[in-house]
Structures are given as structure tokens and as C-alpha cells.
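Contributing new records

If you add data, match the layout below exactly. Sequence lines come first and carry their own label; structure lines follow with theirs. Keep one chain per record. Anything else will be rejected by the validation script.
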Amino acid sequence: MNEEQLVRAVARGDRAAFEELYRRTSPWLAVRLRRRCADEQVVAEVMQETYLAVWRAAGSFAGAAVDGTAVGWLWTIAARRLVDAFRRRAHDARPLPAVEAAPAAEDEVLAGALSDDVGGALRDLAPELRQVLQAMVLDGLTVRETAVLLGVPEGTVKTRARRARIAMREALS
């Protein structure tokens, strides 16, 4: 069974399918969350909330996620749960530990999957511009969610998104 079939089986209450979905996707999801948050407790809470949401809402999966797959749907849920966790922490006024920006395998694969021109333009973007593009375009987050995720004001996100679009346009022309 592929992930989409597993989600549909989970929607029918199949615990074995849920366990298999978790076994296949949780390592990848944990790594992706850790790239955005260094607090293991927050990552663990987000993982738990994500899979609880998957169990409860598997029937709403229609293949219309960010990339049309169950994995994209799962990441959308997790990214939104992470933003919620950041909001809770900001409200409690406890800062989250920062993660040092390091080139990630995900970024390398993305750049390699794109044409040479687009991949090169993406690699040449300043890291803060690339982060905004990743959050808004690849992860499908809103400006507000991106601002919370990156810990910057919404206006900064908008400015960086505009600068990234201009830089990409110039690099590709």
C-alpha cells in the first residue's frame, strides 16, 4: 500500500494502516520539524498532535494537499501545528532555541530537481529569502504562519518574499 491508500484505510479506522503510516513517515517528519525547531519537546508535541489529527481527520484527505500526496497533506498538518506551538510559546514569552542555518538535504534535492537555471537561482538567494520561499511556496504557509515560524514580523516576510521574487526573476532573465 502507498501512503495515500494507508490514509484512506486510516479513515476507515484501520489501526494497522495507521501504524504503518506512522512507521513510514514519522522519521522523515521528525527530521523536517527539527530543521525548523531545536526544542525536542516542541517537536515531540507537534508530532503527537499531527498524528492525532491524521487519525481524526483522515477522512478529509482528498489528495488536494500542497503537492497532492498524503505526505504533502501530512506535512501541511505538521507545519500548521508547529506554527501553533510557536504561537503558544510566544504567548507564554518563552523563547525557543534557534537552529543554526545549515544546508539541508531537502534544499539540495530541491535545487537538484529544478532546472539548472532555477536551481542555480535558488541556491544564489540569500538564506533568509530562501527560507521565506520554502515556507510560503513549498510548505504552503500563509504570511502570518511564515512570520511566526521564522520569528519575524509579517511585513518582513512580505518584503523578503518580494525581494526573493525579484531576485529569481532577474536571475532567470
